[in-house]
Each structure stands twice: as structure tokens, then as C-alpha cells.
């Protein structure tokens, strides 16, 4: 059994990493350690 990621899994992981760094990380850094409102979270999921 191989535990190495397939090319598709690598692409999906990299795509998710780019999305998180571009869309989510700046909001987390600006927001600090508090909680997010429902509206803030819904804004993150719109594509």
C-alpha cells in the first residue's frame, strides 16, 4: 500500500492552500483571536 498522494490529490491540496492563503488568512490576521460572525463565514464560502 502506498501512502503517497496522487497527482490529483497534490493538485487539490495546492489549490486549497492557495485559496486559504488568499481568501481566509488575511481575514484571520485582520480579525485577531475573536469569533467570526455568521455573515463573515458566509462571505468566505461564496464562489
Brief write-up:
By secondary structure, the protein is mainly α. It has 2 helices and no strands.
Characterization of this structure:
The protein is mainly alpha-helical and 47 residues long. The protein is built from two helices and no strands. The mean pLDDT is 83.
Strand and helix map with partners:
Layout (H helix, E strand, L loop, with lengths): L6 H25 L6 H8 L2
**Shape field:** elongated
Radius of gyration: 15 Å
Largest sheet: none
Structural class: mainly alpha
Mean residue pLDDT: 83
Helix count, per DSSP?
A: 2
H/E element sequence: HH
**Into which percentage range does the β-strand content fall?**
under 5%
State the total count of DSSP E strands: 0
Features:
single chain, 47 residues, mainly alpha
Amino acid at each position: 500500500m502506498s501512502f503517497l498522494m496522487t497527482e490529483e490529490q497534490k493538485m487539490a491540496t495546492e489549490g486549497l492552500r492557495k485559496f486559504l492563503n488568499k481568501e481566509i488568512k488575511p481575514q484571520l490576521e485582520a480579525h485577531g483571536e475573536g469569533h467570526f460572525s455568521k455573515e463573515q463565514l458566509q462571505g468566505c464560502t461564496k464562489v
